[in-house]
From TrEMBL, chains A, B:
Pfam families: FAD_binding_3 (PF01494). GO terms for biological process: 'de novo' NAD+ biosynthetic process from L-tryptophan; anthranilate metabolic process; kynurenine metabolic process; L-tryptophan catabolic process; quinolinate biosynthetic process. Residues 17-331 form the FAD-binding domain. It comes from the Eukaryota. It comes from Oncorhynchus mykiss. InterPro entries: FAD-bd, FAD/NAD-bd_sf, Kynurenine_monooxygenase. The keyword Transferase does not apply. It catalyses: L-kynurenine + NADPH + O2 + H(+) = 3-hydroxy-L-kynurenine + NADP(+) + H2O. PANTHER family: KYNURENINE 3-MONOOXYGENASE (PTHR46028:SF2). This is Kynurenine 3-monooxygenase. Pathway: Cofactor biosynthesis; NAD(+) biosynthesis; quinolinate from L-kynurenine: step 1/3. It is an enzyme of class 1 (oxidoreductase). Belongs to the aromatic-ring hydroxylase family. KMO subfamily.
Amino acid sequence: MDYSTNDSKSTSKNKVVAVVGGGLVGALNACYFAKRGFQVEVFESREDIRQAKIVKGRSINLALSHRGRQALKQVGMEDTIVSKGIPMHSRMIHSLNGTQSPIPYGKKGQYILSVDRANLNKELLSAAETYSTTKLNFAHKLLNWSTETGAMTFLRAAGAKEEIQADLIVGCDGAFSAIRKQFLRQSRFNFSQTYIPHGYLELTMPPINGEFAMKPNYLHIWPRNTFMMIALPNLDKTFTCTLFMPFDEFENVTTGDQVIEFFQKYFPDAIPLIGADALKRDYFHLPAQAMVSVKCSPYHLSDKCVLMGDAAHAVVPFYGQGMNAGFEDCLVFNEIMDQLNEDFSAVLPEYTRVRVPDDHAIADLAMYNYVEMRSHVNSKWFLFRKYVDNFLHMIMPRTVIPLYTMVTFTRTRYHEAVKRWHWQDKQGQKKGIDSNQRDTALF
Amino acid sequence: MDYSTNDSKSTSKNKVVAVVGGGLVGALNACYFAKRGFQVEVFESREDIRQAKIVKGRSINLALSHRGRQALKQVGMEDTIVSKGIPMHSRMIHSLNGTQSPIPYGKKGQYILSVDRANLNKELLSAAETYSTTKLNFAHKLLNWSTETGAMTFLRAAGAKEEIQADLIVGCDGAFSAIRKQFLRQSRFNFSQTYIPHGYLELTMPPINGEFAMKPNYLHIWPRNTFMMIALPNLDKTFTCTLFMPFDEFENVTTGDQVIEFFQKYFPDAIPLIGADALKRDYFHLPAQAMVSVKCSPYHLSDKCVLMGDAAHAVVPFYGQGMNAGFEDCLVFNEIMDQLNEDFSAVLPEYTRVRVPDDHAIADLAMYNYVEMRSHVNSKWFLFRKYVDNFLHMIMPRTVIPLYTMVTFTRTRYHEAVKRWHWQDKQGQKKGIDSNQRDTALF
């Protein structure tokens, strides 16, 4: 190794980037840094999920949309992932009486993709490993690290310790980030974690006679005011159903018979599809999971460390943007690396400056949708919303772009989309549309 | 000890309450629990300030108002503390041209008191010690504690460890609470810390010919948009001046000459009063201090631990309620102890239920005033605000009570005061008063 030039593109080959967390954003980031020629070390506290049995406790499927796809494309992964996703062109609203009504996500040809979290993670880890400069270290639990030197200590399974020295530490270790804990000790670090009163629970709807039990190319939604269920299709022709409900209400359902009674009342059409026996059993498989919204600022610590994905901004799942925002983090960071010639001391503050307002905007939007949902979302509301969107679009076709479209099908910066939305809302008000009919869209 | 009865008033004598933190709220709490007959152990990480030299880094004086006084009264401390405070009946607004204009805090006879933080702390510690059941433990740094058993481990100066077992742990250990760290590890604990872009710096204005350099019975304010200085009188006839300014701006002033230049431009009347030489020197005595707003929920952990004061809700200082809210915490807890017969398993959740909305309301109000101040507060604004208040009060004398009055001179619950304020604002709008003229009041 004798790089006599100062060109950082060459010196990057000597620099070690430690990516903490081998989940979705960590694995994608490994690809990005490896592609630039850095020595990439990924540290994941769990075992390699490619060898592991079923991973429990995290949502099984996710909705991939434009931002996530663009981020995958940059490292040549878009086609591979899209080919294993199931397009969802519309929401399918299930009324209490069993009526199903589709509401398209956008214009013709605009759709989101149901993707399998575990498979996506595996593909990204394998992609990262194709770079000779990348090393994946599993079962490495971060014990300590220095904000000054970048020295890191990991605990191995047998109690042994391992040390490495990193030029840049990229914290992609999720909503309960160990990396972020050091940020909390710094002066003037802003941080919030907000749990919502709802929990969620996943159920499986099996195939019927080898076919999907419901129409596959839809995100199925059962809106029932404070309760809601959604279902996303999987490649194996099952659906994963997710039930959202206040924790208080979960506590009221404690026996199999109560589960059936509850479903009879709110989701009667789902009982035969999930199967009464499976429902009674699987409902109690895991306790209801909590959902947290995390915001913080800054995202960097000197020129040594940067946070991305859930570690920087966990969002509640009511805008379908958690993974997409995390993937776009990698893309935005990559763009700034280009602009500022890989100079970490300039790139990191710029990343904070550019990305914080956008991540905060999507976190707020997701929370806003949660609050909206909690207060008045039923089937009629959903169908009415469609009417309002169409009406606005009809009277101002060139100026009104639905917020959902900007968020889901463009790379308009999140905070710009929100600004524009407020502006559009004002225009709507001038035309006599009251603010209860605001442009929002769940999932 | 043979208490054969189940009366908790008697059994309280066997129970150990560990108060963590011997600052203002911790010391007051010690009095409250001792008065009820509990065995009180106060643990403070620093030395006894009654023996210590000057305590640095915390604001020297504070404004005591109704809520704080009521809390002191309940343990017989009001008169002692009030006798050492200096009444401030009005704000005194200093214009750039040197004009001084008073704005009363309330009606005739309504005033706030400038009190010395160190003296108040000393008095409260000594008051706590008058109870035979209270033990003050200084230089005890909390190492660890169990949320299940109440077992606590403290580190002593020489490296020795000390263990105790508490029935109730009361976390009064300030904005960076060590007790609160355990809460963060619990599921569904909501937490936020927000630093504001302003810092503060304290300066002393000495007496002139043995007398106060300015009129003593006022809180002096120099509002200069994003800069602001205030001054509170002390018993030794000095004033403590506090300069609030964005950190960016602090960084622009690095030499003694620049300090003078800066004061010439914004606070010319203060230069001869502080003294040019002292100003040049003292300005650099300590770096500008950060201000943080902390909110969290719940305030309790099972029946074992509860947070009060800054540990539960640090507020920015722009409503003068930080200490008053902390003292009122003790009073509210005491009221609930009466209502629920000292049953911790009922008292702690009830305290969270009742107190969280109020503490969040005052934290938000203080932040709201900060944002208002930052955007447009100058001398004219202050004087105009007075006009608006008077006008509203004139047209609706029985229904409009200024927000500042409710917060400062009553025990109206903070969140009720805010609700009422919004209502009044709506009434004002109906009478043609626009929302830029909202009822707010700094300090």
